[in-house]
Every structure is written in structure tokens, then in C-alpha cells.
Amino acid sequence: MLWEQGPIRPPSEAGSLLLRVTRNCPWNRCAFCATYKGERFFRREQAEILAEIRAMRQAADKIEELAGGQITDALIQELYHTPGYGAQYFYLANWLKNGGRHVFLQDADSLVLRTGELVTVLRAVKETFPSVERITSYARAGTLARRKPADLADLAGAGLSRLHVGLESGSDEVLRYVQKGVTAAEEILGGQMVVAAGISLCFYVLIGLGGRNFQAEHPRATAAVINAVRPAFVRLRSLSVQPGTPLHESMMAGDFVPLSEDEQVEEIKTLLEGLDPYNGHLVSDHILNLLGEVEGLLSRDKERMLDMCRRYLALPSSERLLYRLGRRLGDFNSLSDLSGPRRAQMEERLQLLQSHGGVEETITRLKRRFV
Q1: In 3D, which of 182, 289, 180 has the Cα closest to residue 235?
Q2: Are 236 and 282 in contact (CB under 8 A)?
Q3: What are the two backbone dihedrals, phi and then psi, of residue 145, each rounded to the nearest 5 degrees?
Q4: Cα 322 off chain centre by
Q5: Ranges in the chain annotated CATH 3.30.750.200
Q6: Quick one: which of 50, 307, 336, 352 is 20 to 30 A from 37 by CA?
Q7: Mind listing the pLDDT tens digit for each residue in 265-316?
Q8: Using alpha carbons only, what angle is made at residue 227 by residues 225 and 229, rounded to the nearest 5 degrees?
Q9: Taking the mean position of all CA atoms in its chain, how far away is CA 283?
Q10: Which residues of the chain have a pLDDT value below 70?
């Protein structure tokens, strides 16, 4: 018996074993999200989930038997290409080789399951794989706001370590516009209860989500929600409007005007200026983020991160364009690369693109590879 895997997980859970406890998203109306469009939501039966945990254990035992004491890269590759094993064994073997410590529950909102059912699943994971140290999941802020503090305490006690929550914005106007289905007050309530339960909380902020209409409101209101909750992590995501989404339709109609990349950096600066210097981490761990080095501990690194934004915005427009192209081609990872050995090559590529009038089109196309 093999086990299901959903379509996405956070970049920080790249090394985690994926356990699917729900299918798709119970809300599925966010104007900016294309991930689950056209898919129905299902709560998976507890018995089905527990059977898959046992199947993972049986597969792990088989892998360890084949390994004879040490799981090697050669064995992992062999499993991938051997009929009857394939990709799931490949990922499981990699997970075991790296210690088998982290598990991520899919899909978009595991907290819609009844508390008792989820507690049973969490305990089964810990009992079946004693090496597991951390179990994490996505959750919707609205779902968390409807939970009782005792529910979250029970989940924490059973082993739920961290929740990844798409805050997106702290502005009620923006939240309504993108049909997020939650209010800033609910984001605060749900987030505060998670923190109080001792569960690590990670908020995701979608830079540029307010577009030009809410350019001033979006970062300031978002900072206010974060300050009220003080999550352990705030992860930045740069908006890329995807074809097939309601937000793309609004953009094509001229109702939604997206920010330029320079304006997104300005928005990050405004967000940072509004954040309290508390003991939480700001993380920029997605390739779409232009300034990946804008990350650190807010209590220690806030001014350094602000300085990175100021340095970029103070560059001449020609330098900002050169950096943007280098970043999207994967040759630049920090502002210091503008004075590095790859600058001359990047200048040649920029000049060639400018001679054909296709710089912005090329950058947009390069960005779409990572969505």
C-alpha cells in the first residue's frame, strides 16, 4: 500500500515526511491562489490516515532492511528507478537518511479535523516513528479563531509543534478584496491562542497583495496584527498574480494594479518600520523575494534589514534593473553581487535584452518559472 501526497508544503518543510490528513482547501476562494481551484475539499477518514502511517512504517522497515545498516545515496537512487518502489520510497529513504525528525501534515487546513481525531493521528505518528521531533501543519486563521484554547493545548500535548498560517495581510480592506474569508480580529485571536498553547506560529505575509489601491494600508495594518500576536516566524512572500485566478481577472480589467518590484521593496521597508523589535524571526525563504538577505531576528537585526531595503532603493534605476535581472537569472543572491565577478556578464545580457526591448518581459517570464 502506498500513501497520498498533496501538492504543496512550505519551503521550510522540504525535508519533512508528508502525511495527507485532508485533501485540498476548505475555503478555496482566495482571489490570489490557484493551488486548489476546481478541486473539492475532503476530510480524510481517521482509519485511512492511520493505515497510511502503518504503510509508511512498513516501507521504512523495508528500506532499512535493504540498506543493511546504512542508507546510502546509491540506494536512494536505486529505489527511485525500481518498479514497485518509486518516488514515495525515494522521499521516505531520504527522510530516514537525514534522521526522520520532521513530519508535515497536508493539505491546506488540518485543524478542520476534530480535535480527538487529530490527537490520535499525532500520537500515532510519534509512536510509529519515535525519531520524530517536530510535527507541523498549515492552518487557516479563521479556523484557529473558532478553536477553544483547550483544543490547541491538547494538540500541543499530542505533538503538534508548529502551525504555518497564511496571514497574507492585516488589513480588513485587503482581506475583503482578496476574499480571504477572515478578519484582522480573527487573525489576532487565533494567533494569540496558538502562541498561548505553546505551539510555534509562522505567519506568511504576501507582499504587494494590496496593489496600488491599498499600498499604504496593507503593510501598516499587517505590522499591527503581527505586533499583537508576536509569532515566532514571519515569512515574506512576494505576490505574483497567476493566470486563472480571480485576482488576475481583476488585474486584466484594470481594477487591481500590481506593485513593481521596487515598490514591493518599499512595502517591506514600511512593514519593517512598523514591526516591534521582539524576539521573532523575519524570514525571506522564497526565490520570488527580490532581497533574500532581508531576514533576521527582529530584536537584533531590524535596523540591518531596513538598511538593506534603503540601500537597494537608493541605487540608480540602472543598477536596480541590473540586480533584478541577475537575481531572476540566479546569478545574483545579494546586493554585493553588483560588484562581484559576474557583473560584467550580467551587463552584457542586460544590454542584449535592452537592444531588443524585452527586459521586463524576460524578468516576468523568469519569475513565473518559480511559481
Answers
A1: 289
A2: yes
A3: -65, -25
A4: 27
A5: 164-314
A6: 50
A7: 999 999 999 999 999 999 999 889 999 999 999 999 999 999 999 999 999 9
A8: 70
A9: 10
A10: 1, 371
φ/ψ of residue 23, rounded to 5: -115, 125
Outline where the chain has alpha helix (H): 46-67, 73-81, 86-97, 115-128, 141-145, 149-158, 172-177, 184-196, 217-229, 246-252, 261-274, 298-314, 317-329, 343-355, 359-368
Q: In the Cβ-directed half-sphere of 359, how many Cα atoms lie within 13 Å?
A: 17
Task: Find all residues with CB under 8 Å of 145, minimum gap 6, and list them.
Answer: 182, 186, 187, 189, 190, 193
Which residues are bridge partners to 102 per DSSP? Answer: 134
Q: Is the dihedral of CA 287, 293, 295, 297 positive or negative?
A: positive
DSSP β-bridge partners for residue 205: 168, 236
The CA–CA distances, whole Å, from 230 to 139, 202, 210, 286, 319 equal 17, 10, 22, 22, 36
Phi, psi of 214 (to 5 degrees): -120, 35
How far is CA 141 from each of CA 120, 144, 170, rounded to the nearest angstrom?
23, 5, 11
Tell me how far apart the alpha carbons of residues 299 and 266 are, in angstroms, rounded to a whole number. Answer: 21
pLDDT of residue 340: 95
How would you class 87 by CB atoms within 10 Å of its CB: exposed for 0-12, middle for 13-18, buried for 19 or more? exposed
Three cell numbers at 28? 478555496
Grid coordinates standing for 227?
Answer: 505586533
Please tell me the predicted confidence (pLDDT) of residue 218: 98
DSSP 277-324: --S-EEE--STT-S-TT--EEHHHHHHHHHHHHHHHHHS-HHHHHHHH
Helices 149-158 and 184-196: angle between axes, nearest 10 degrees: 50
CATH architecture of 164-314: 2-Layer Sandwich (3.30)
Q: What is the pLDDT of residues 164-210, one digit of tens each?
A: 999 999 999 999 999 999 999 999 999 999 999 999 999 999 999 99
CB 162 within 8 A of CB 206: no
Residue whose C-alpha is closest to residue 289's, from 275, 309, 314, 270: 309
Look at residues 133, 135, 207 and name the one whose alpha carbon lies nearest to residue 164. Answer: 135
